[in-house]
Design brief:
Layout lengths: L3 E12 L6 H16 L8 E5 L10 H4 L5 E5 L5 H14 L5 E9 L16 H5 L5 H16 L3 H15 L13 H6 L2 E3 L2 E2 L8 E10 H7 L5 E9 L20 H13 L8 E4 L4 H10 L8 H6 L16 H5 L3 H17 L13 E8 L3 E8 L1
Parallel strand pairs: 2-3, 2-4, 9-10
Antiparallel strand pairs: 1-7, 1-8, 4-7, 5-6, 8-11, 10-11
Length: about 375
C-alpha cells in the first residue's frame, strides 16, 4: 500500500453564480486543480465525482475532454464529497493508478433542501408529519444536547459569529460580512433555538482535488501534503441521526465516532496532534456536537472553548477557518471537498488573512450527511 498525496486543488467560489451550471463550476475547479498540479486532463487516470442536484459528474468529460477516463458518480448525502475522496484515494493507495481526481459540485434551488421519505426508506406519513424538515430535526437535537451538557444559546451564537468573521477572510466564501453576536441572537427564529444566522444555506460551488502517488508528487515537485487517513462510515445501532424514525434511550455512538476513531488509528495520531480542523456545521450546534464526537473535547466543554476563543484562527484548535458551511453555504457535492481544500491551503501556508499561525503540520476534516454517514480525512505536511 503506497501513500497518497494531494497534488493540486481547485475551487469555484461558493454562493450563487447566475448563468453557470453546477457542472460548469465543477469543470472550473478541475481546470484550476490541474493547473495547480502542473498536469493536463489527459494525465488523469480515473475520477470520482459527487453531485446531489446538479446532474451527473461524469458528463464533465464533454468539456474536459473525451479521453475515455474511468469516471464514477457518487451520491451520499452531505458526505458525498468526502465519500468521493475516500473512494479515489483507495485506487492510488492500492497502486492501481498514479493520478486521480475527486471532484464535487452542486447548484441547489433557493429554499430549504427537499428530501423525500422514499429516498430514506421511510413511510410517506413521516414526511406528512413534517419530520423530513431538517431545520426542525437539528433544532430538536441541539436542544436535547444543550440540556444534557449545560450549553447556552449564546455559545451557539459564538459559533456563527466566528464563522462569518472567518468567512470575510476567505475569497471562496459566500457570506463575507461579519455579524455581531447580538444580531445573531436577536435575529428571527427559524426553529428554536436557532435563528436565521445559525443555519447554512443550500448553495452553489465546485471543488476538485488531484490525488497521486508519492513518486508522482516528487516528480511534479508539488508541496508534499500527505493524505494520512481517509475513512467513511455509516451509523451504528442506537445512533441519533437525521430521518431516524425513533431514538433509542441508550445510544450506541454515531457514524462520526466510528469514522473519527478509525481515521486516528490509521494515521497513528490522536486529536491532540491536530493543528487545524474543519467540522461539519450545517447549523451552529453541529460544530459544537462534532467537536466532541470527533474527540477534540468532552461533551459540555464547548461552552468554555467558545468563550475562551480556543477555536479561533489563533486558538488552541482553529475550527472552520474559512467560515465553514455557515459562511460558505452548502452545495452538497462540493462541501466536504471544500473542507479538504481549505486544509491544503492552510498546510501550504497560503491562507492569507485566515492563515493559522505556528506553521501547522496536521489538518483534520469531517463531513456528516443524512441518514447518518460521516467521512473523515487527516492530512499531514
Amino acid at each position: 500500500m503506497g501513500d497518497v498525496f494531494v497534488l493540486g486543488v481547485g475551487i469555484h467560489p461558493f454562493g450563487r453564480t447566475e448563468g453557470m451550471s453546477g457542472v460548469d463550476q465543477g469543470v472550473f475547479a478541475v481546470r484550476q486543480a490541474l493547473g495547480d498540479a502542473g498536469l493536463e486532463w489527459k494525465d488523469v487516470q480515473f475520477a470520482y465525482g459527487a453531485s446531489d442536484a446538479a446532474g451527473n459528474p461524469d458528463t464533465m468529460v464533454d468539456q474536459l475532454g473525451l479521453t475515455g477516463v474511468q469516471f464514477i458518480n457518487v451520491r451520499n448525502g452531505c458526505a458525498a464529497g468526502g465519500s468521493a475522496l475516500f473512494s479515489a484515494q483507495m485506487a492510488i493507495k492500492s497502486g492501481e493508478c498514479d493520478i486521480g481526481l475527486a471532484v464535487g459540485f452542486d447548484k441547489h434551488p433557493r429554499g430549504a433542501f427537499d428530501a423525500k421519505p422514499s429516498e430514506y426508506n421511510l413511510p410517506e406519513w413521516y414526511g406528512d408529519a413534517g419530520y423530513m424538515v431538517t431545520t426542525q430535526f437539528f433544532a430538536n437535537k441541539i436542544m436535547r444536547y444543550m440540556h444534557l451538557n449545560g450549553i447556552s444559546r449564546e455559545t451557539l451564537g459564538r459559533v456563527a459569529e466566528k464563522a462569518f468573521r472567518n468567512g470575510e477572510k476567505a475569497p471562496h466564501a459566500w457570506r463575507r460580512q461579519p455579524v455581531p453576536l447580538e444580531d445573531i441572537l436577536e435575529a428571527p427564529m427559524v426553529s428554536d433555538p436557532y435563528s436565521k444566522y445559525m443555519f447554512c444555506s443550500p448553495a452553489e460551488g465546485g471543488v476538485a482535488l488531484i490525488l497521486g502517488s508519492e513518486k508522482k508528487a516528487r516528480e511534479l515537485g508539488v508541496p508534499l501534503v500527505r493524505l494520512k487517513a481517509a475513512t467513511m462510515r455509516t451509523r451504528p445501532p442506537g445512533s441519533f441521526e437525521v430521518f431516524a424514525p425513533s431514538v433509542d434511550i441508550e445510544r450506541g455512538g454515531s457514524a462520526t465516532n466510528i469514522a473519527s476513531r478509525d481515521a486516528f488509528n490509521i494515521a497513528g495520531i490522536g486529536p491532540e496532534d491536530i493543528d487545524v480542523a474543519q467540522l461539519q456545521d450545517t447549523e451552529a450546534g453541529a460544530e459544537l456536537m462534532h467537536m466532541a464526537e470527533n474527540g477534540f473535547c468532552a461533551d459540555g466543554e464547548q461552552e468554555r472553548w467558545l468563550a475562551e476563543g480556543l477555536t479561533e484562527i489563533g486558538g488552541k484548535l482553529p475550527v472552520n477557518t474559512d467560515g465553514g458551511c455557515l459562511a460558505c453555504g452548502e452545495p452538497i457535492g462540493a462541501s466536504g471537498l471544500r473542507q479538504v481544500y481549505e486544509n491544503v491551503v492552510q498546510l501550504r501556508g497560503q491562507g492569507g488573512a485566515r492563515q493559522v499561525p505556528g506553521d501547522p503540520k496536521t489538518a483534520y476534516s469531517h463531513v456528516y450527511g443524512a441518514p447518518g454517514v460521516s467521512a473523515v480525512t487527516i492530512l499531514e505536511r
